[in-house]
Amino acid sequence: MELTVRTSKSYKIMIERGCIKQIGARAAKLFRPGAKVLIVSDTNVLPLYGAQVTDALTGSGFSCFQFAFPAGELSKRFSTIESIYGVLAENRFTRSDFIVALGGGVTGDMAGFAAATFLRGIRFIQIPTTLLAQVDSSVGGKTGVDLPQGKNLVGAFHQPALVLIDPDTLSTLPLRYFSDGMGEVIKYGCIKSRALFDLVQSSDIQNDMENIIFCCVDIKRQVVEQDEFDTGERMLLNFGHTFGHALEKLYHFERLSHGEAVAIGMVMMAKYGEAAGITLPGTADEIITVLKKYHLPLEDETSLERIVATTALDKKSSGESISLVLLNEIGSSFVKKLTRRELASFCGVTL
Ligand SMILES: NC(=O)c1ccc[n+]([C@@H]2O[C@H](COP(=O)([O-])OP(=O)(O)OC[C@H]3O[C@@H](n4cnc5c(N)ncnc54)[C@H](O)[C@@H]3O)[C@@H](O)[C@H]2O)c1
Ligand SMILES: [Zn+2]
Known about the structure:
The termini are far apart. The strands form three sheets. The chain has a seven-stranded mixed β-sheet with strand order 1-2-9-6-5-3-4, sandwiched between helices. Strands 7-8 form a two-stranded antiparallel sheet. Strands 10-11 form a two-stranded antiparallel sheet. Strand 7 and strand 8 form a beta hairpin. 44% of the residues lie in helices and 21% in strands. It is α/β, with parallel strands linked by helices. It binds nicotinamide-adenine-dinucleotide (NAD) and zinc ion.
């Protein structure tokens, strides 16, 4: 299956079991013969898939270099970016050479950021290997790096030249990371597609994975095409994230994974939406049923006052607003802008 994303630069996304082996042939259509390529990966993923990717690229005549950083979010920092720049500079990479990001969202965000900035921009290919990266972070062109003061505080919009999604790579992914990605998959169903939601609810996940990933990527494609630089429609992707982010922060990014926090945030939004007469009654229960199937949490003991007090104000707005994503029903969503005080009264608490 293949999709084309039509943003400032258009690119293809291929979703196919085993497609990782086609990286050489696919790259040969985009880059000059003999170009240099740096495979950026982490210490878990490079031993699993590095050889296949390297062999395929070398077989198509590219000159391959590898760089692996210690796996985990803690590596998503400038010292790692500097090391990537070092390898590129020492090996005299030029603008006609390229980077391949082989790994999860941490790898994609950093390899993408290095590509966006080295020589003011070289091209890169995404080969996402976590479910979260396959359905979310590898599509849309957001790249970035964390600062000690906060996550993703520095970054750039830089669209990839190609995205190769091989669902077979998920076979080695630890279960908790798989569930984490399912949180985002369920989110796509909630905001845009009753059909996807039903598929996720009823499916035998192993057999339907390619199809499910395709549906998610297609939704993200549509949203990103309408709002490449994140000023409106793209906010819908934040369903469950307003309270989810607050919970992640309250637990210092340690107790809850991103998908787990989003799962709890989605249930909360559906419940408050129902109580306010905005969301179709029964929606929260439907979300709970599907979250249970994928071993995701449904609630948290943190007080609502603390959660509301921790919600971040919109990055882009100079005012005091919070953009809350609410559901009319499964598959239909909209953004409601509120002040923190309005959000508190919407949830029935006083700050
Ligand atoms: N750019 C965006 O639009 C966007 C969107 C969402 C999230 N993100 C970012 O993505 C990051 C999280 O991504 P993630 O959850 O993929 O984290 P990750 O890249 O750290 O991967 C999670 C873990 O799985 C391991 N792994 C990856 N693929 C594997 C495989 N196939 N088999 C075995 N192990 C494998 C990794 O080594 C790591 O230990 C965060 O930094 C977040 O900010 C970016
Ligand atoms: Zn998310």
